[in-house]
Amino acid sequence: MIEVYLQEALMRERLANARRAAALYEVLRELEPRRVSPWRDAIHRLSKAISCLRLKRHTEGTALQEGGHQVTEGDRMKWVTRERARVDRIACPWLISRFIDKEPTFLFVPANQVREVAERESATPYDIPGVELGHHGERCSFDAFLDKYKLEDRALQALALIVRGADTEARQLTPESPGLYALATGFQAMSKDDHDNMAKQFPAYDALYAFCQAVVARRAT
User: What pTM does this model have?
Assistant: First the structure.
């Protein structure tokens, strides 16, 4: 897995794969140091190159390829959902900002105002009843985003199970789901507002994603 991400990143200058390779290296370095030692120097060089690639892409005004969705200047959108977010309504903004929309605007409003604000602000509503990007059966809004934007990354699919278990009554769906629920509840309680909550929780989702990448890689060997 790390070999594939490195090859893609170096040959095609794909920022998503560059970040994934670097994150996966950090996790595997702790779990299987012998396996990743040959890639140490390449990863370090790649990390230094990431910022240069970002600047190059921004300067040229080209589209950024993230996961299965191509993000262009016109794709930047507003996203609106219910206030007092805990699990799904933080996981979805993380997914949006990392893989769908590089400069999103997130709006959190009272539940009875989501549709009104969505229409007034030309925003996309999510995680409310009756919308495409919401719960469908046992699947939560995070799953709906993966389906709509064709994000087929196996690590994201694994993360979706953790989120689903934490966001629904199926708390034992994965061993990690109860912990995510507890963590999200704590961050909700200590955050001054939903945007502060996002800022606090996003690093946790980065870490969970890196963990899922490592798990997927180990299963593939």
Answer: 0.69
